[in-house]
Amino acid sequence: MRTPTSFVCAAALAVLAINLGACFGDSSYRQGSSDEPDSGTCAASSDNDAVRLALAPACEGCHVNGNKPFFASLAAFESGLVYDERFVKRGDPEGSLLIKMLKGNAPGSYAQMPPGQPYEQLVANGRVTMTIAQVEDWIRDLKAPPEPMDTPSPKEFQVRRLAADEMVVSLMDQLGLTLEDFVSTSNPDWRNRAYVVNWNKFFVWPGDWAPGISGEYVSDSRAPERYEALGGGNSLEYRKKNPMFGPSSGQALVQMSQAWCGRAVDKQNNKAVLRYVTLADTSTKNPDAVQKNLRNLYLRMLGQPPTDAELKELYEQVYLPLEAQTTRLAWVGTCAALIRHPLWITY
Length: 347
What we know:
The chain is mostly helical. 44% of the residues lie in helices and 0% in strands.
């Protein structure tokens, strides 16, 4: 399927911006060292930043976004974690909740962070190189917070790629799809049966989402594999989220967009994609309806109305060449092209 040239260029720039913005490369902590970081790693701007980069391989999977995005930036790390006495008590590592979580003896619901493997095992297997003793030394010698604190500015433009769970949930909603479109729940004993998922439905489902935890919810192992390719984590397998958007994510999204748009177009009485047209309407028979539906679909998928130039480009470079084959293929291809647009991929 063809995609407009500007769509491709914009997507490439968006992906580059996402990948450059997610810089957690240097997982070593060298307090007081002036050594240059290795090629391809992030240079720490301060002792606090060095700790952020060192802890990131263990923590960023859950704390790059969400309600506790401590590792989204240095400002977020300092304002949300370092200088919040609920987590770090300056000069008192033994009384700091952060240390207790790393040791696995914290009070409350989250005794251990990160969940899964103990932090010391992550150090032992080389996933992180900063030891708990070094974290304790950092807290013991932690400098006073600057005045005023450097907090994230709401005026600054920030962008990130959609997480895998956001892609799955929002795309189902946008395309008018439900779980029933992928797996059958008609059997009264469905919760206790392994589903037979036809591969061409391209089911995407996380391995640790209920009710799939038992392993019997999905009989096609490719469903969670596709989710992880989109960057999703799997706490049961100790796999963290991947904030990058690389070749695997791109390939999974291309296949997912085409398969799911096809299911949305084929679904009876579904107005998500074909709101103002039917498959019998063509650019020759009903040009006004086709243009109206294109404009509506652009707004639905990208959250903003297209300019005349954008609509013309989508119509001439995507819709018309595919309509020459079938109208079904034209609407599936147009829908899939919008899903791969940077305005859809990013948030």
